[in-house]
Fold LamG-like jellyroll fold domain-containing protein.
Amino acid sequence: MTAPFTRRAFLGTAGATTAALGVGLTTVAPAAARTAPHKPDPRATLSPLPLSAVTLLDSPFRANMTRTLAYLKFIDADRLLHTFRLNVGLPSNAQPCGGWEAPNVQLRGHSTGHLLTALAQAHANTGDDAYAAKGRHLVAELAKCQAAAPAAGFTPGYLSAFPESVFEQLEAGGNPWAPYYTIHKIMAGLLDQYRLSGNGQALDVVKGMAAWVEARCARLDEQTMQRLLHVEFGGMNDVLAELYLVTKDPAHLRTARRFDHEEMFGPLSQGRDELAGYHANTQIPKVVGAVREYEATGEDRYHRIAAFFWDTVVHHHTYVIGGNSTEEHFGPPDELVCRLTDDNCENCNSYNMLKLSRLLFMHDPSETAYMDYYEWTLYNQMLGEQDPDSEHGFCTYYTGLWPGSQRQGKGGLVSAPGSYSSDYDNFSCDHGTGMETHTKFADSIYFQSGDALYVNLFIPSEATWERHGVHLRQETAYPKAESTRITVTEGEGRFALKLRIPGWLGARGRHAKIRVNGAATGVKAEPGRYATLQRHWRKGDVVELTMPMAPVWRKAPDNPHIQAISHGPIVLAGALGDREPNTFPAIDPRSLRETGEPLRYTARADGAEVTLMPFAEVHHQRYTVYWATPAPRQRPRLLAHYALDGTLKDTTGKWPDAVLSEGADFAQDGGVGLNGTGGHVVLPRGLITGLDELTVAIRVRADSLTNNARLFDLGFNRRTFFYVNSRTGSGRSRFSMKSYGMDGEDFVDATGTLPVGEWLHVAVVVGGGSAVLYFDGAEVGRRDGLVMSPLILGATSQNFLGRSQDTRHPYLHGRVRDFRIYSHALDAAAIGELHASQS
Ligand SMILES: [Zn+2]
């Protein structure tokens, strides 16, 4: 959710990202790539077993759901109706809510939509009429508010907790806080009340809202409409297309398509990843809507958009726990650990990615990739977003991944990373999606087609497959146990049982085993596919699926020496107590030991023993998911050398040529001339990967000095870098390095600045926890006790001479030549010789 008071300034860092990394990679992506682009059917091939047909048995999922159910019973509907009533002049003496539902917050009303959905799911899944009754009360009262809209001066059909004038601001080019986002939540809640809880009045109210949306948008030309779509609008196309699938009223589909955001859909339909810099959760619901529009229209383009987006996000923008985003935004593809903070992985994003995965799966069940991702994200992020100590299922907003992040404390302030929500004083988007997530675990365990039942998730449950009059019971301690056991408890018939054989099994070439009534089946159980057990099933038949698990180290795509560890589908995190590391703890992978308790290991990190446990179980303490793993042994050598004396070649022959950019050019009397207005040199990606010590040297002639102009800057973005500049505000040249989430940076100030108009040999040597800066072979600055090692930087994607990672900084004005990187820390004598030599 874009929140004016949590949103942080964001400067896109889209840059050259085309070059290969030049290192062996194991993806951290939690699902294998889809291989076969099947021609999917716009009519979904599968449907889920309805919530009413599946009951959760004891498990962490049921425990989470129980807490959220308690909240749904507890919450006072009239407090959530308060601002709706006041908005149309109806009386209310309820106590106003706080947080994002406070009477002066523009997003007010969105939580009522989430509540309607959660109540409908809870009713469908438990059969308890108390949830339906609360839903009926809310719907009836919202209907009264809608009926009162014209008398309050609003357009008929308008239903909201804020005045309609906000939409006038939006249409006039203003930037109010996401008014259609809130309308979407209310409409979706009403539609769920109809679909899941059988509330006919809810359908009437949502149809009235749809008519209002249609009237509102009909007055706008396409250009105005597209401009308006820049403001977060949730899944308006989604709910309207879904409404069309219920009503078959062409107006609903027509209105849905007015919300097709071409700035996003255009590149996606052509298979281009232009997501960097976009607010993530503003985009995901639009793409969920594209699947619904595909169902409604049969137009392939919608499916292409959704399938490409899913592949792109899951394989190039997703952290090892299944979530995406840094401070709510997408970054450049495959740049992940260079963007770790306390504010990664907004939980709503994953809630929406799971919706998308589930819908895509229902159109293309040939592979397990969609549901592998679903499982992975469910266990590693969603299950853990909720506070197990809260009676009401409070959730965090972000799931931070910078080492030392935590889920903690009592909610209230949404802006405190990792803090849990509360009864009435939070109402963030994630409190809302949390209510939904934790009341629908039962909806993706089993799916059906005509004569096949798919078992997707290994969550203890009972299910009734009405079509065949069959009852099943799934019992398992998975993932603490490696197997699950499915028993036919009632009925009989000939059908196929299709078991998901998770793609993660493929990581170690392990094989699933399937036994029916104790006997091996010989059925193919290929990871990433569904194993089909076709037979005449009878009461008492027992299927046992065993999925061997082992620890797997997972390298980050942007830094092979930063790794996470998983076991089966579970990401393990280091439980750090109240220890807050300054950067990635250094782990010794060889020290990993089983504890005897399932999914718990110990290892040595930063010289002390640390416990690793399922990430979702780490609460009320600091944790790390990513670790620094040992650097490869480097032969001391000149690693790269760009003389830049009329040639752009690397003299070691290992690297691609440098590129002169934006007016940089060879000077007749040596080196590359930089004009100070944009000219710079671009060096290949990955130059300093895998170095825990190094030397970087350059000859530079500054023709004028400006603060922050860089001699060189090797990094990813304006918070992950390794640079030397010509001058800081204090009048000294500085070496500095930093990784994104670090407090502060490791830096060394020289005794002075660069001379003007004279060539200077500048070298920085980093290693063994120290950094030394040299000018013309003489030490001019030193720092010991560095926080980070250069190993933390990884395969830096933006390596510049004369240009900063930060687009606000000036360019260098002068000359550069003889740029060198050594794979080791040169001593003072060697630096002296280097200075004296002529390159
Ligand atoms: Zn959110």
